[in-house]
């Protein structure tokens, strides 16, 4: 269970987003409350119920398949996988840039160095994952402790020491509605609200390993609860510490994470700690990369063995890892890294792809919430489990409604407002807005249709011999098939 908690934490928890969240000032408490109640809490309860009912390898794929059949199970896990494949380039770029920052390399814009570091990190993590889940779990555990827990505790302790020493708080804590409740009619505030939802994306990723968890029907909900409190501790207390020490006008979203920490620790005359913290944050991000390498693939591997994908994708090594799938994914990520690093003017196109795949991920969440409703109906007739969302059907519908609402907020804001506000400064390429213009929403809608169509077409034209030669019979087809 400890290893499972570390794997989930490696996926969900990091300190990279703290400066972004701190820039909201005292209004961060409102944003945190809305994001936690509107998205994180529904996800935890829904995932707990789904995991308790169907504690089988594959996670999202198994649940959606049990509710709506193989086609939509494959579609949901494909959407999760493609989003993480594209987003991995951004995380790798962050790791490479931070390493260059630590060693004070004079040419931070050197794309060749960023490319080399990105490829070394990703292929190194890939080779570790090929050695099996135990090796991957150890990497996740070490990375979470060194790269998330210790930096987070350091920031919170430093913030508490700052306040206890009687230093001025760089926040107006006066209890007024204007201080704590933002004007959501302002598109900029809507964009910030969407940013508070994004750190919680991916919480369902570790469910791919649920079958390896002892007594998953009981321990999976407990593991999620622990990770949620850890995530809130890191995000809320860490962001508040930064906001209390660093004036809001000095929290530069463009400058980046390390510059924010540099200002933070210079206040305590502890500038020497910033490079150490930077290395720790890199370690935490490497753990995130390593964990995401195998998580969606386990669901894709299961659907491949059921005959949805060619035989080449159905092969595994002596450790039970789908080696061909892992190598294919590493090659694809490498290709995206090379394109991003070497082709001039590709930055805008890449960030549009990140936005597109994020919206595609919202579709996967929408399917997951529908799955919870469908499986509750099936379970009430055919199965029992150790966890139900409190409040019966009404509680389930309330949580799903919150989830649907959160997905719509992030989707609409991202499509029509996000790149039209000052929050665009969070993107490394400031010329994105000039490039995108009015075609941005059109690109997102058309791109979402194309990406969703890919798994549907693959499923439609799959060949019978893929299943026959694979010889795989899914032992746990889910409540729909079991009934």
Explain how this protein is built:
It comes from Methanolacinia petrolearia (strain DSM 11571 / OCM 486 / SEBR 4847). InterPro entries: AA/rel_permease1, APC_superfamily. It is found in: Cell membrane. It is a multi-pass membrane protein. The chain is 72% helix and 0% strand. With 483 residues, the chain is an all-alpha fold. The chain has one domain: Amino acid/polyamine transporter I (Up-down Bundle), CATH 1.20.1740. Helix 1 packs across helix 10, helix 3 (28-53) packs across helix 14 (347-382) and helix 12 (273-308) packs across helix 18 (464-470). The longest helix is centred in the middle third of the chain and has 36 residues, at 273-308. Residues 419-433 and 475-483 have low confidence and may be disordered.
List keywords for this structure.
transmembrane helix, transport, membrane, single chain, 483 residues, APC_superfamily, Amino acid/polyamine transporter I
Largest sheet: number of strands, sense, barrel closure: none
Q: What would you call the quaternary organization?
A: single chain
Shape: globular
CATH superfamily: Amino acid/polyamine transporter I
N- and C-termini, Cα separation: 31 Å
Question: What is the CATH class name?
Answer: Mainly Alpha
Radius of gyration: 22 Å
Mean pLDDT: 80
How large a portion of the residues is in β-strands, by DSSP E? under 5%
Helix and strand element order = HHHHHHHHHHHHHHHHHHH
Number of strands: 0
Helices and strands: which structural class? mainly alpha
> With helices defined by DSSP (H or I, 4 residues minimum), what is the helix count?
19
The CATH topology comes to Amino acid/polyamine transporter I
Write down the domain tally: 1
Q: Which residues form runs of ≥5 with pLDDT under 50?
A: 419-433, 475-483
Percent helix among the residues?
over 70%
